Amino acid sequence: MNRNGKYIGIVLAGAAAVAVMIGLMRSAPIAGDAAFPEVFNAVTVTATASPAPVDRAEVVIGVMQSVTVSDDATLSGTFDTVMVTASGTADDYIEVNADAERGAKMTCLVIEGDYVRVSGVEVAGCYSHGIYVTGKHAIVENSTVHDNVTENGTGTCIGSGQWGSGIKLGLGGDYAIIRNNQVYENCGEGIAVTRARFALILENTARDNFSVNIYVDNSPYAAVRNNHVLCTGMAGYMRNGGRPSGIALGEEYYEGWGAQLHHNTIAGNYVDGCSNGIVSYKTDVDGRLKDTIISGNTINSGSGRSINLTGANENVLVENNRIYDEILVSDPAGVTLSNNTVAPPFARTATPTQIYTPTSP
Questions:
Q1: pLDDT score at 319
Q2: For the chain: N or C, fewer Cβ within 10 A?
């Protein structure tokens, strides 16, 4: 992202704040990102391909300082907190990439601007959320996120209440794409969508996160697709002696937000070794699991149920899943079960046959 005359502003933490102004060349439009709802379509989702490495941006050298990025940047070295505050446009994203040779490792990453793409970074050691997104149309891809949420411990998780996530889409973080990331051994959720709309969680590997590996919490129009979710029973990441859930849907209370868990899709994921493979929790706000498809997933093994719907439901379709035991539905009203196969073990392949193509309400 560059605007002919705009610059990257870099704020260094320490006794003195230093502003480094770096002139950049004009960036080219990125095909396929202008119309976000298209990515929910199984045919066009691959059209939003990762960009080629950005060679127009100046390299920002990290020596364990905090930086604020307000234009295209290639990060190199080790940073404390990286904040991306500026906004791009639908055809001209702010691009933040890791240096191809040295890489880029940071303690925390905060994305506040709209139309920001971050690729190839490593985030580890943050007190709460490793990556926290509140800007719209963010893309986080090809990155490694681990050992965050240290408020609950490091290496051995001990928390029992509210906590952060490896990657968190928070209020305002609508239309985000989280794809092809490695998210593991965080002492909270792995990837969480919390009051963010139209999220796409695609082709990530989420492993041994303390709470839930992938969690959609009181958010509408999310698609969780083609992810690989593993629970190995790793020491230090067992909550109350048990393994975490693979993929969960919940409706927790947030003041003024109400009940907004609807029109979500959980499709084509592979889940192995977790407590519940896919679970919906009882609502905290007098709502219900509504207008939801759980389709084409492979739940290979686990210590609890393959699919466990614990609360009230409305227009929920569970179909074409390959599972290791029978589906448990506590309140069958509003749920349709169709063509689910109980016969493990399964290879890591899964294909959804239906998927919502959300439009704005």
A1: 98
A2: C
β-pair type (328-329, 307-309)? parallel
Q: Of all helices (H) and strands (E), which one includes residue 42?
A: none
Radius of gyration over every alpha carbon of the chain, rounded to an integer in angstroms: 20
Look at residue 188 in the predicted model and tell me its pLDDT: 96
Quick check: helix, strand or coil at residue 106?
A: strand
Q: How far apart are CA 360 and CA 265, in angstroms?
A: 15
Max Cα distance, the chain (Å): 64
What 3-state class would DSSP assign to 213?
strand
The pLDDT, as a whole number, for residue 1 is: 52
Q: What is the pTM of this model?
A: 0.84
Structure tokens at 104: 């880029």
Q: Alpha-carbon distance 211 to 172, whole Å?
A: 23
Separation CA 320–CA 297 (nearest Å): 7
Distance in angstroms (rounded) separating the CA atoms of residues 310 and 78: 44
The β-bridge partners of 266 are: 224, 294
Confidence label for 240 from pLDDT (cuts 50, 70 and 90)? confident
Mean pLDDT of 246-272: 97
**Any idea of the CA torsion for 128, 175, 280, 289, to the nearest 10 degrees?**
140
| Cβ contacts of 42 within 8 Å, gap of 6 or more | 352, 355
Inform me whether the pLDDT recorded for 6 exceeds 70.
no
Across 38-59, b (16+ Cβ under 10 Å) vs e yields ebbebeebeebeebeebeebbb
Please give the C-alpha separations between residue 255 and each of 136, 153, 195, 262, 284, in angstroms, as whole numbers: 21, 28, 11, 18, 12
d(Cα 249, Cα 281) in Å, to the nearest integer? Answer: 6
Picking from 170, 93, 172, the residue whose alpha carbon sits closest to that of residue 139 is 93
Region 50-72 average pLDDT: 78
Within 10 angstroms of residue 158's Cβ, the number of other Cβ atoms is 11
Neighbouring C-alpha atoms within 13 Å toward the C-beta of 235: 0
25-55 tens-digit pLDDT: 222 232 333 332 333 333 233 334 444 444 4
For residue 347, the model assigns a pLDDT of 64
How many CA atoms within 13 Å lie on the side-chain side of 43?
Answer: 1
